Amino acid sequence: LAWMPKPFGSLKKSKYSATRRLHLKSKLLKKAASMLAAEIEDKKHEKERVVNECFPPLKLSGLAVQELQDLCKELHRKIDVVDEARYEVEVKVARNNQEIQTLNGKIVDLKGVKRPSLKRVKKTTDDMLGAFTDTTKHMKADFKVNLKTVKKEEDKREEVTDWRKNVEAMSGMEGRKKLFNAGQ
């Protein structure tokens, strides 16, 4: 047996003890958390720097009304330019997302649908015999027996009579009284 190689995945003793690995893992997590916090802080400072570069603080003290109105108009023009650029970027992003979805669909079509491996199901002899006999007809018959029956009402047909007699019968107060009683 000495000539046989060790099986793949055999258990071998690790270089570090469990407490040492746990300690190293906690140190790595602390370092990653501090690096993440520093990266967030750097992004915040970068954003502030870019905003201050592009849009210097406004000096409104000592400006006349006309100058303030001109400043507002200029700011509105800049806002319109930024909104147009933002809209164009949103359209590009939407178009790219749609293209990504279509390409993903094509990839799935090319790969084909992966069929899962089916598990073998053990059947009892009763199940096997039941599959060969035609018990489904009996079950359908039982199902139909349990259903409630609904009786169809026949349409009430009014007798066709001479219309002249009907007009004479409905004329006057007696006819109105018959219509009133029929409505209730």
Automatic annotation (TrEMBL):
Keywords: Actin-binding, Muscle protein. Coiled coil: none annotated. Belongs to the troponin I family. Pfam families: Troponin (PF00992). Troponin I is the inhibitory subunit of troponin, the thin filament regulatory complex which confers calcium-sensitivity to striated muscle actomyosin ATPase activity. GO terms for molecular function: actin binding. GO terms for biological process: cardiac muscle contraction; skeletal muscle contraction. Gene3D superfamilies: 1.20.5.350, 6.10.250.180. One of its GO terms (cellular component) is troponin complex. It comes from the Eukaryota. The keyword Translocase does not apply. This is Troponin I4b, tandem duplicate 1. InterPro entries: Troponin, Troponin_I, Troponin_sf.
